[in-house]
Design goal:
The chain has about 280 residues and is of the alpha+beta class. Helices cover about 35% and strands about 25% of the residues. The strands form three sheets. Strands 1, 4, 5, 9, 10, 11, 12 and 13 form an eight-stranded mixed sheet that branches.
Length: about 280
């Protein structure tokens, strides 16, 4: 925050408004410090991988060698950049109960959002939660948005998913599936097989927002169990996913095996490459 902005806040006449402005400004400043620390740690690690000594990095940064070694191993994890910057907003959909016709939320979606929130907080993010209302409308043109939802529930989400140049959702007789247009393979959930199996296919992507001014992360299982598998992989393998996905748009598919009694994932693995949609700069 600049000195001019501090002076502007200090000059606000109403004390309640001044307090709100100071609180909001401090939150923004703290987020900026977190992201700069994350960026610095990533740069130190990258330069060291390229062969720079800690002494050379320290000289370039204007810090001591001991401080650079500390930065290398402490502070916000570089892979947190996978989620972007600022506040992470996690959206899950309301669904209509087929028997009582009332709005409900899938237990697996709630669990997935809570676990994802815990992961984001551990990486230095503030976290907000929201629900996609019945009807599926959601404003996707917001920073830090992560949507746990598929095309059946929300036409807004379906519209963004249609922009994926590689992985396409399709409606089959037995249920939903995803086609890999590069390999020609079609991936369906084991739940929809005859006989059914305790496995699901899950989709994970970072796609351009409808307004073109940012990105939105979207993931969903063909069935709710798949979403839990995505969160498990993000929790356990985020650094590797971040390296494979890069900073731009991407998509990939996961196979999620789960315990049929608890719906908890027992094994989660990638079944397609992590497809980068944009050429590297």
């Amino acid at each position: 925050m600049s000195d001019d902005e501090v002076a502007r806040i200090a000059a606000i006449a109403d004390p309640a408004a001044r307090l709100r402005a100071a609180t909001e400004g401090l939150s923004v400043a703290q987020q900026t410090m977190t992201e700069l620390a994350r960026l610095r740690r990533a740069l130190v690690q990258d330069l060291h991988k390229q062969g720079w000594s800690y002494a050379q990095i320290a000289d370039a940064a204007g810090l001591s060698r001991g401080r650079i070694h500390q930065v290398r191993h402490q502070g916000p994890m570089p892979e947190g950049a996978f989620f972007g910057r600022g506040t992470v907003r996690i959206a899950t959909p309301l669904k209509r109960d087929e028997i009582k016709a009332r709005p409900v939320v899938a237990v697996e979606d709630v669990t997935a959002s809570q676990r994802l929130g815990e992961l984001a907080r551990s990486l230095g993010f503030e976290v907000d939660y929201e629900q996609i209302p019945l009807g599926g409308h959601i404003d996707l043109n917001r920073d830090g948005l992560i949507v746990i939802c598929g095309p059946r529930i929300s036409s807004d989400v379906a519209g963004v998913l249609e922009t994926d140049p590689v992985l396409k959702f399709e409606r089959l007789t037995a249920g939903w599936a995803v086609r890999d247009t590069r390999s020609g393979d079609v991936y369906a959930s084991g739940q929809d097989d005859e006989p059914p199996t305790a496995s699901d296919v899950a989709y994970l992507s970072r796609l351009r927002r409808p307004d073109g001014n940012g990105v939105v992360i979207v993931f969903t299982g063909i069935h709710p169990q798949g979403s839990l598998g995505v969160v498990q992989m993000l929790t356990n393998e985020l650094a590797d996913l971040h390296e494979q996905a890069g900073p731009g748009t991407f998509s990939t598919l996961l196979q999620v095996d789960y315990d049929p009694e608890t719906n908890e994932p027992t094994e989660t693995r990638l079944i397609t490459p992590v497809y980068r949609h944009e050429p590297e700069a």
